[in-house]
Amino acid sequence: MLTGEPFIPETITVHLGTPNSDAQNVTVDFMTYIKNVASSEIYPTWPDSSIRANIYVIISFALNRIYTEWYRSRGYDFDITSSTQYDQKFINGREIFDSISNTADELFADYVRRQGTVEPLFTAFCNGTTVTCDGLSQWGTVSLAEQGYTPYEILKYYYGDDIEIVRNAPVRTRTPSYPNVELSEGMAGNEVKTIQVQLNRISRNYPAIPKIAQTDGIFGADTREAVQKFQEIFDLQPTGIVNEATWYKIAYIYTSVKRLAELSSEGLSFEETEKQFANEQKIGSQGFPVREIQYYLAVVGAYYDAVLPVEITGYFGEETEKSVKSFQQVFGLPQTGVVDRQTWNDLYRAYAGIAESVPFDIESSVVLYPGTVFKEGSSGDYVRVLQEYLTYINQSYPEIPAVNNTGYFGPLTRQSVLAFQKRFGLPQTGVVGGAVWNDIAGLYSDLRFGTDKRLYQSPGYTISAET
Fold first, then answer.
1. CA-to-CA distance for 56 and 163, rounded, in angstroms?
2. pLDDT tens-digit profile of 16-60?
3. Alpha helices in 367-433 (DSSP H)
4. CB of 154 within 8 A of CB of 141?
5. What burial class does residue 367 get, using C-beta atoms within 10 Å of its C-beta: 0-12 exposed, 13-18 middle, 19+ buried?
6. Closest among 175, 174, 154, 176 to 165, alpha carbons compared
7. What pLDDT does 2 receive?
8. 27-58 burial by CB neighbour count: b if 16+ within 10 A, else e?
């Protein structure tokens, strides 16, 4: 996971044996799992404070395995094992003690973490009699409880004074962290930022991996180079593209170098998990992601009659919601009107398919946005097209500097983009996504060809391209 605040999953999948054993997997609801482990690990006759401290530990341990995707990032199809050699004792189908069940009902949405960190603490523990360890002693909690220690004081005794208990964490359906779409140069989003943050931390242990200058959620040339070097080091095909195998390998190495699945964890700061963009775009949302969504919807709507086109305003209002619902209906998604990860991925794929079908013909038509974000450091034929558009616009708007069509997005191209954005009241980012490309290409089209060269046109907005 490693991509945001932890939450309580509805279910957990347990491997009934050691990781590599040919054992059955069972999926149970998380509450049942916690009650089963607690009934298998401790005794219902123990003092209440002891039982509570142990349940906090059991919950936190399991959540750490899920949050770090400890097993799934290594290719396993489960979240945790039933082996006490690796994890916690789980006996499939066992009887649950009433007193433990009642306490678990009260605490199951609470977990332990270090102050100032995000991830659930890897709350190592052992029985304290036949086995001792650096973490909590289960039988030791009994003695401390009998001395009057509270559950929190017991936890501090074993894990230090810098811990805290997170209470009433949200319960949500868990989905795999991999976004189900390959990340490549030009793409943007929270998943890209996650990869950038993780690669930069990994590079401290593997300095051959180049640092990514800006963890801004935009997959630029420096991100591609870092991905390629990571892939070379860890025997993956060095494509510079983050597929599922690369995604989970990065997650695994990141967890390892930060020791997130160890009691001596370096910790995961809130800054490291901060989102570049909101997870979901819906009514009331505004800004760069909304403009991109609206642009894609407008283009897709030009090819699919049932998808309602929408004005590119940067504000997610009722018309955008209607357009999103129409897209979701056409593509077999729940008609929520909310752009979640699945809707965004399908929208991007639908747009990319259209973009690939439109001829690249700069001489006689306006080139459709290729679906990749351009910023300083980008290069290629589409950057050259962008530069030609800006230079042509300069003839009518001299405050927008002309640039040489080198095909490299350098400081001068960025200045020209910034000047365009300033002139037309757009957010001054120096970055060219779909909506900005549309604005630049649309003006270029008007100045050179006239409005009859528009792919799609409606009062107040246009898609500047030609079939």
1. 12
2. 999 999 999 999 999 999 999 999 999 999 999 999 999 999 999
3. 381-394, 411-423
4. yes
5. buried
6. 154
7. 59
8. ebebbbbbbbbbbbbbbeebbebbbbbbbbbb
User: What confidence tens digit (pLDDT) does each residue in 212-251 have?
Assistant: 988 888 888 899 999 999 999 999 999 999 999 999 999 9
Q: What H or E segment, with its residue span, contains residue 126?
A: strand 125-126
Are the C-beta atoms of 340 and 280 separated by less than 8 Å?
yes
Q: What contacts 74, CB < 8 A, 6 or more positions away?
A: 248, 252
- The DSSP bridge partners found for residue 51 are none
Q: Which residues contact 123 (CB under 8 A, 6 or more apart)?
A: 56, 57, 58, 60, 61, 64, 112, 135, 136, 159, 263
H/E element holding 81? strand 80-81
Distance CA 250, CA 227 (A): 9
Question: What global pTM score does this model have?
Answer: 0.74
| Alpha-carbon distances of 163 from 61, 113, 123, 260, 407, rounded to whole Å | 14, 6, 11, 15, 52
CA neighbor of 83 nearest in space, from 98, 95, 71, 68: 71
3 pLDDT above the threshold of 80: no
- Residues 353-366: pLDDT tens digits? 888 887 776 665 67
CB 297 within 8 A of CB 320: yes
Q: Which two tokens stand for residue 261?
A: 């699945």
Question: What type of residue is 18?
Answer: T
CB proximity list for 230: less than 8 A, separation 6 or greater:
199, 202, 206, 209, 236, 246, 249, 250, 253
Cα–Cα distance, 64 to 86 (Å, whole number): 13
Q: Nearest Cα to 420, choosing from 296, 412, 407?
A: 412
40 contacts 94 by C-beta, under 8 angstroms: yes
* Strands 171-172, 8-9: pairing kind: parallel
Q: Are 327 and 334 in contact (CB under 8 A)?
A: no
CA distance 179 to 190: 10
CA distance 148 to 169: 28
